[in-house]
Design goal:
Elements (H helix, E strand, L loop, with lengths): L1 H23 L3 H10 L4 H23 L13 H18 L3 H9 L6 H17 L10 H4 L1 H18 L9 H9 L6 H19 L4 H13 L8 H21 L10 H18 L6 H8 L5 H26 L1
C-alpha cells in the first residue's frame, strides 16, 4: 500500500510539473533573453525561488528521513563543471530551448524538438564512449553539518517568505480555475513554486527520473555494457506523467497544434540537443537538476555549472543584441 501511495504521489507531482512547465514559460534561454534584452529579471528570480522552495523541504527531510530523501552529492571538478555549463548554454541557445523549454515545445505540438531528443542521445552516447570522468561524489555540506543546514534553511525560508505575497493570486479560486481549466498563463513565481517543490522531492527520493534522465541512461547503456542504471520505472513514470501534464495544459489553453520544421531549424535542434546531451554527462545533470536539486543542496559543481550556463547565454544575447543595434 505504501508503494502504491508513493507511486500515486509521484505521478501527481510529475503531472503538475509538466503542466507548470508548459503553462509557465520556464526556460533558461527565455529568462536570459528577457534579462539582457528586455531588462526583466523576473524569470531568474523565479528560478531562485524554485531552488529555495525545494531546499525548504529537502533539508529537513534529508535529516529526518535520510533513508528516503537525499541531498545532491557534490563533485570537486569545478573547472570542468564551469566549462561544460558554458557548453550546455551554447547548446540551449542553438536549440532555442533548455530541457524545460524542450518539453514545453514538444507538448505544444512542435515536432522539430524531437530532433533535440535524438541529438541528446547522440551526444550522451558519444561522450560515454570516448570519455568516462572519474568523479568521486562527496556528501552535501548541508547533510553533514547541522549548523550549515540550519543556516541554509533559514535563508531558504527568508526567500520563500519574501516571495509568498507574489503568490497571492494562487489563493483565489478564480485564478486557479483559469489556470487549470482555462487559458490563463502561470506567472514565473507560480510555475516555479510547483517545479521547485515537485522536482526537488522527486529528485531527492527517486534520482534521475525525468525524460532527459531516461535518455541519458539509455545512451550510456548503448556504449557501456557494464553500466548499471537505476530502475527505469521512476523515469518512465515521471516521463509519462510530465508529458501528460504538458499535453493537458496545451489542450486546455487551446495552444496545441502539430507543427513540423524546416532544415535550418531542424539542424539547430539536432546540434543543440547533441551539445546539451554531451554536456550533461559531464556536469552531471541538466538545468532542471541543477536548479531544483543541485542548488538547494549547495553542490559545488551545480553552482559552478549554473553560473557558466547563465553567463554564456547572457553573453550570447548581449552580443547578438549589440550587433542588431550596430
Amino acid at each position: 500500500m505504501n508503494a502504491i501511495a508513493v507511486a500515486i504521489a509521484a505521478s501527481m507531482l510529475s503531472f503538475a510539473m509538466g503542466f507548470a512547465i508548459r503553462r509557465g514559460t520556464v526556460c533558461v534561454v527565455v529568462a536570459a533573453q528577457d534579462l539582457v534584452v528586455r531588462r526583466r529579471p523576473d524569470k531568474f528570480i523565479g528560478f531562485a525561488t524554485a531552488a529555495c522552495w525545494s531546499g525548504l523541504l529537502l533539508v529537513p527531510l534529508a535529516w529526518t528521513a535520510p533513508a528516503v530523501f537525499h541531498l545532491s552529492p557534490g563533485y570537486d571538478q569545478l573547472i570542468q563543471a564551469f566549462l561544460f555549463g558554458c557548453l550546455y548554454g551554447i547548446g540551449a541557445w542553438a536549440n532555442q530551448a533548455c530541457g524545460f523549454g524542450t518539453l514545453a515545445h514538444l507538448t505544444g505540438g512542435r515536432l522539430g524538438y524531437l530532433l533535440t531528443l535524438a541529438g541528446w542521445v547522440i551526444g550522451a552516447s558519444f561522450i560515454s564512449k570516448v570519455y568516462r570522468p572519474q568523479q568521486i561524489p562527496e556528501p552535501s555540506l548541508l547533510a553533514t553539518s547541522p549548523l550549515a543546514a540550519i543556516a541554509a534553511w533559514l535563508a531558504f525560508a527568508a526567500v520563500c517568505w519574501w516571495s509568498w505575497p507574489r503568490l497571492r493570486l494562487l489563493r483565489r479560486r478564480s485564478r486557479w480555475r483559469k489556470m487549470l481549466l482555462g487559458r490563463a498563463r502561470m506567472r514565473p513565481f507560480e510555475a516555479m513554486l510547483i517545479i521547485g517543490i515537485g522536482g526537488g522531492l522527486l529528485y531527492a527520493c527517486a534520482g534521475s527520473w525525468t525524460y532527459l534522465g531516461l535518455l541519458s541512461s539509455y545512451a550510456s547503456q548503448l556504449v557501456m555494457h557494464d553500466f548499471a542504471p537505476i530502475s527505469p520505472l521512476p523515469a518512465l513514470l515521471g516521463t509519462a506523467m510530465m508529458i501528460g501534464g504538458g499535453l493537458f495544459a496545451a489542450v486546455r489553453s487551446a495552444s496545441f497544434r502539430l507543427r513540423g520544421t524546416n532544415w535550418r531549424q531542424g539542424s539547430r535542434h539536432l546540434v543543440g540537443g547533441t551539445i546539451m546531451g554531451l554536456a550533461t554527462q559531464l556536469i552531471p545533470g541538466g538545468n532542471g537538476v541543477i536548479i531544483v536539486y543541485g542548488l538547494p543542496s549547495f553542490a559545488p559543481h551545480a553552482l559552478t555549472a549554473y553560473f557558466g550556463m547563465t553567463l554564456t547565454l547572457m553573453l550570447i544575447f548581449a552580443a547578438t543584441n549589440y550587433s542588431r543595434r550596430a
